[in-house]
Amino acid sequence: MNEIKAIHAAASRGSWWAFVLVAAAIGLTGCDQADNRTAGEKVDAAVAKTERAAQDAKAKTEQMAGDAKAKVESSDAASRMSDAAKNAGTAVTAAAEDASITAAVNAGLAKDPDLSAVKIDVDTQGGKVTLSGPAPSPTAKSRAEQIAKDVKGVSSVDNKLEVKTM
Q1: What's the whole-model pTM score?
Q2: Which distant-in-sequence residues (6+ apart) come within 8 Å of 118 by Cβ?
Q3: pLDDT one-digit tens code per residue, 97-111
């Protein structure tokens, strides 16, 4: 009856391994009728076997924890690499958009007979266009700014053109 109480106590504490080990120890001591050991010796042997099983379980648990940690660290590295790739992709996309805006503004300036696309420097960063260089008149300077504003993707224009006769 004490054996059943021990099994029940181990199971009710939620310690599944302890339950299995106690049940195995009791089974081993009760099943071997030809064993000439005393009850104390059988209990000692069962306790030793239980301790070995507990040590094995501990070693396996530590190994599994180490494996899990390695996977998490590997996952973190993969996540960081993925984020870096996304950031690089975003930067490349932004640079391509800025280059496209610069090309479109230069094309618009080249179409205007009073503006010199060769002499006007167009710089685009994050959709913001900066115009610098000479403009033949205040009207031409204003027209250059409007040409840049009309390009799709332009968020603002910093018109640093200087009115000079060409």
Answers
A1: 0.50
A2: none
A3: 888 888 888 888 888
